[in-house]
Design goal:
- The protein is globular, with a radius of gyration of 21 Å.
- It has 398 residues and is α+β, with helices and mostly antiparallel strands.
């Protein structure tokens, strides 16, 4: 466990003891994630290449006592992030609430576990949730909450879930209870990640490879721009629609089934906008597969080049970047390999959020200082940065 996660664990345990007057019986955790390359490919049934990060959600829990005042067939969750307490049903037919709340993800996972006959072995329980994943930065705190909840359900029931099945429970919870039509990447990596490995995931077949990243000379730097432009809903829908329309006009169900040569040969059958959207989707799959091979071969120069090419495509063809993220990537380019940066790109849905960079470990401090200074000078915004090794997926601590 990383130092920051040890601090998170200590804070969670202390909060549970203060809130409920005893130590927790169960403690579970699940990580957030960053996508190294493979953006806006999931809904085209393409490939993604994420890794779990050393930022987590931790849940500490225990059976409820009479003095807790929790009704039977209910669980009381307390969130340190917002100071809110909520009681959630843990038996029967649990239906989504009309309004989506932070605890909707928990509600959906518990419902999904019950539907799969994971038995609830306690009448009621109490829990504290703590998190150090930056909220709103596109690092998938929601999937971490889903996977930690599912792991808690496993531990309380003594019924292990298949890790892929656990990821699917989380995805369904997000679709039905949080009403977010996400792909499968976030839940997969939060559930199945292993230390010092990235995951190449086929979003069609759900087949995956864990690709080693053991080099201590290199690290992953995540840069939170602290900017989120409120365009995502309609913009995201437009891009999906353009991809599906291009695929239909070109005689396939998904862009995954086309090559760049086929796209070019049939360019006249689609609009210019559809062409650019499709060019990104198809070329990003090619880059993602090549990036996995580059990492296997320890060709870090090529991996960095592919990250920059991915960003250029997202900026120009897919148009989901923004001025602030472009500035971060340009600062990284200016630092260059001589300064310890191999590659950098936007990560996540776009219009703000985070950038991810492949950097030399022994130059991290200088790189971070340079990015902070130049970004503040150019935007007036103070970014936040952290370094992560590829982390472990959801698991039991206690």
């Amino acid at each position: 466990m990383s130092a920051c996660c040890e601090i998170l664990l200590s804070e969670t345990q202390a909060a549970f003891e203060e809130k409920f007057g005893r130590v927790a019986k169960w403690i579970v955790t699940a990580p957030g994630r960053v996508n190294i390359i493979g953006e806006h490919t999931d809904y085209n049934e393409g490939f993604v290449f994420p890794m779990a990060i050393e930022k987590n959600i931790i849940i500490a829990a225990a059976p409820a006592l009479e003095s807790d005042g929790v009704p039977d067939e209910m669980a009381r969750f307390y969130s340190l992030a917002n100071g809110e307490t909520v009681d959630i049903r843990i038996s029967g037919d649990i239906q989504p609430t009309e309004e989506v709340k932070w605890w909707s993800y928990i509600q959906g996972v518990i419902a999904g576990c019950l539907q799969r006959e994971v038995p609830m072995m306690v009448k009621s329980f109490v829990a504290v949730i703590h998190c150090n994943i930056p909220i709103g930065g596109g690092l998938s705190s929601s999937a971490a909450l889903e996977m930690s909840t599912a792991t808690l359900m496993e531990e309380m029931s003594h019924v292990p879930l298949d890790k892929v099945e656990k990821a699917l429970i989380g995805q369904k919870a997000e679709h039905d209870y949080a009403r977010m039509p996400c792909g499968i990447m976030d839940q997969f990596i939060s559930s199945l990640a292993e230390w010092n490995h990235l995951m190449l995931l086929d979003c069609r077949s759900y087949e995956y490879q864990l690709v080693p990243f053991h080099s201590q000379e290199l690290s992953i730097l995540i840069i939170d721009s602290k900017v989120k432009h409120e365009l995502v809903g309609g913009e995201y829908a437009e891009r999906r629609a353009s991809c599906f329309s291009a695929a239909e006009k070109l005689g396939v169900k998904f862009l995954r089934d086309l090559t760049l040569e086929q796209l070019q040969q049939n360019k006249e059958k689609i609009t210019e906008l559809e062409y650019r959207r499709a060019r990104h989707g198809i070329s990003e799959d090619v880059r993602t597969l090549e990036a996995a091979e580059a990492l296997k071969n320890k060709d870090y120069d090529r991996l960095g080049e592919l990250m920059y090419a991915s960003h250029d495509s997202l900026r120009d063809d897919y148009e989901v970047s923004c001025a602030e993220i472009d500035i971060l990537v340009e600062i990284a380019r200016e630092i260059g390999k001589e300064g310890g940066v191999y590659g950098c790109r936007m990560t996540g849905g776009g219009f703000g959020g985070c950038a991810v960079a492949l950097v030399e470990t022994d130059k991290v401090d200088a790189i971070m200082d340079k990015i902070l200074q130049d970004y503040k000078k150019k935007t007036g915004v103070t970014a936040s940065l952290f370094v992560s090794r590829p982390a472990r997926g959801a698991h039991v601590i206690l």
